[in-house]
Design brief:
Number of strands of chain A: 4
Radius of gyration of chain B: 18 Å
Helix content of chain A: 55-70%
Helix content of chain B: 40-55%
Order of helices and strands of chain B: EHEHEEHHHHHHHHH
Strand order of the largest sheet of chain A: 2-1-3-4
Radius of gyration of chain A: 17 Å
CATH topology of the largest domain in chain B: Glutathione S-transferase Yfyf (Class Pi), Chain A, domain 2
CATH topology of the largest domain in chain A: Glutathione S-transferase Yfyf (Class Pi), Chain A, domain 2
Largest sheet of chain A: 4 strands, mixed
Oligomer: heterodimer
Shape of chain A: globular
Mean pLDDT of chain A: 96
Shape of chain B: globular
CATH class of the largest domain in chain B: Mainly Alpha
GO molecular function (chain A): glutathione transferase activity
Low-confidence stretches of chain B: 213-222, 231-237
Domain GST N-terminal (chain A): 4-84
Number of strands of chain B: 4
CATH architecture of the largest domain in chain B: Up-down Bundle
Distance between the termini of chain A: 49 Å
GO biological process, one term (chain A): glutathione metabolic process
Strand order of the largest sheet of chain B: 2-1-3-4
Distance between the termini of chain B: 48 Å
Number of helices of chain B: 11
Catalytic activity (chain A): RX + glutathione = an S-substituted glutathione + a halide anion + H(+)
Strand content of chain B: 5-15%
CATH class of the largest domain in chain A: Mainly Alpha
EC number (chain A): 2.5.1.18
């Protein structure tokens, strides 16, 4: 497929954009990438392609736009079937979708509540994040990845969010590995994968970005 | 022999989504009504993370979260598909189903539970969301085209229950004048046989919601019962 058929509207620190990049890398799909200036002014293409939410990521395939990262990863899996990201059986796919939905509903917001707050609110947010990670550890069980032996859909949905953990730990004064060693082990396992390692931003840079956001929000 | 069970709560539009999908596919199932004030051990066992209905049990295996259940149903029983086959159209359908679920339903729900001070602001938000939906429907009979699909199913609250409740509470959010296309869609939707089969009687629905709220406080025990299931409207989000 020619490179220009697939275009990703991107923002470097967005874990949601990273999901799409990892999925495309896993499938070996060549694509173009265009960084959006989220604070300075979003491009016309972005606003036209995602009028409802006006957010990245947007994937344009042959000019047709798709929005919402989990939706896009689904699309990538269905359009380029090899290697499969979702399991084969309908029941296992339902389990995968359940965990992806759980992560989408809970994880990023819980982390946000840690760096956006202080005192009691922050303590409650930390507790919530740890609880979420413990649920995910339950979903992982003794498996290497959420889907079993192979890196797949849920791993792709979850792993980019972990680049923000260094910032949560710094501002929340806790350590994910101490609280959730199984989750930390899974994180390291995924980071050893080329598609992940080449895509994800450096957690130190994410920390600097979050520090900037804190100043913007007038926190400390 | 397939064994299909659905743990539900009769008012829940999330539960209704699953019932409509099962009806579209012609699947026989056993329905088990949950008492949300006293959840069954099975429910807590099958949905330990959220402890909520609906839960679909297929040959003893539980599937939870209504949209996950809809995809499961569509993948397991291939007749009368509720999602398009083309990946791009499928992505569009999922996007709009999410929009209805995450943006429309909460906005409409908030209008029902508004105090008189909150109503105009909540109504404005709901109108905005419905406008977007009406634009997406365009000239189509259903969001799924000629027959109902995932988006229509997920929008069942708009298609039936909300109109009944708003009429009883004398709200003026979703009107034929404001949203003629969506109104016509709702009429057609509520008349489809897979939908008609599982709609609650109107009088039971009306009796389940508090009387006209304007200037009155909410019945707290009723609200706390619903809070067990649905997220209550946040004070200011």
């Amino acid at each position: 497929m020619a490179k220009e058929d697939v275009l990703l509207l991107d923002f470097w620190v967005s874990p949601f954009c990273s999901r799409v990049k990892i999925a495309l890398a896993e499938k070996g799909v060549a694509y173009q990438q265009r960084g959006e200036d989220i604070f300075g002014g979003k491009s016309e293409l972005l606003l036209k392609s995602n009028p409802i939410y006006q957010k990245v990521p947007v994937l344009l395939h042959d000019g047709k736009p798709m929005c919402e990262s989990t939706n896009i990863v689904h699309y990538i899996d269905e359009t380029w079937p090899s290697p499969p990201l979702l399991p084969a059986s309908a029941y296992d796919r339902a389990r995968a979708r359940f965990w992806a939905d759980f992560i989408d509903k809970k994880l990023f917001d819980a982390g946000g509540n840690i760096w956006k707050t202080k005192g009691e609110d922050q303590a409650a947010a930390k507790k919530e994040l740890i609880q979420i990670l413990k649920y995910l550890e339950g979903g992982l069980g003794d498996k290497d990845y959420f889907g079993g032996d192979s890196f797949g859909f849920v791993d792709i949905i979850a792993i980019p969010l972990t680049t923000w953990f260094f910032a949560y730990e710094k501002f929340g004064n806790f350590n994910v590995e101490e609280e959730c060693p199984k989750f930390a082990a899974w994180t390291k396992r995924c980071l050893g994968r080329e598609s992940v390692a080449k895509t994800l931003p450096d957690p130190q840079q994410v920390l600097e970005f979050v520090s900037m956001m804190r100043k913007m929000h007038g926190i400390e | 022999m397939e064994e299909v069970k659905l743990f539900g709560y009769w008012v829940s539009p999330f539960c209704r989504s699953v019932e409509i999908a099962l009806n579209i596919k012609g699947i026989q199932y056993e329905y088990i009504e949950e008492d949300l004030t006293n959840k069954s051990p099975q429910l807590l066992q099958y949905n330990p993370v959220y402890k909520k209905i609906p839960v679909l049990l297929h040959n003893g295996k539980p599937i939870v979260e209504s949209m996950v259940i809809l995809e499961y149903i569509d993948e397991t029983w291939k007749n009368n598909p509720i999602l398009p086959e083309d990946p791009f159209e499928k992505a569009r359908a999922r996007f709009w189903a999410n929009f209805v679920d995450q943006k429309c339903f909460p906005a409409l729900w908030k209008t029902i539970w508004s105090t008189s001070e909150q109503y105009e602001q909540n109504k404005a938000e709901a109108l905005e969301r419905l406008k977007v939906l009406e634009n997406e429907l365009g000239g189509k009979r259903f969001f799924g085209g000629d027959s109902i699909g995932m988006v229509d199913i997920v929008a069942n609250f708009i298609g039936f229950s909300f109109r009944t409740i708003q009429e009883a509470l004398k709200l003026d959010v979703f009107t034929e004048d404001n949203f003629p296309k969506l109104w016509e869609w709702a009429e057609n939707f509520a008349n489809c046989s897979p939908v008609k089969k599982c709609l609650p009687p109107q009088d039971k629905l009306i009796a389940n919601f508090p009387p006209a709220y304007m200037g009155k406080t909410l019945v707290s025990s009723f609200q706390s019962r619903l809070q067990l299931q649905f997220h209550p409207p946040a004070a200011a989000k």
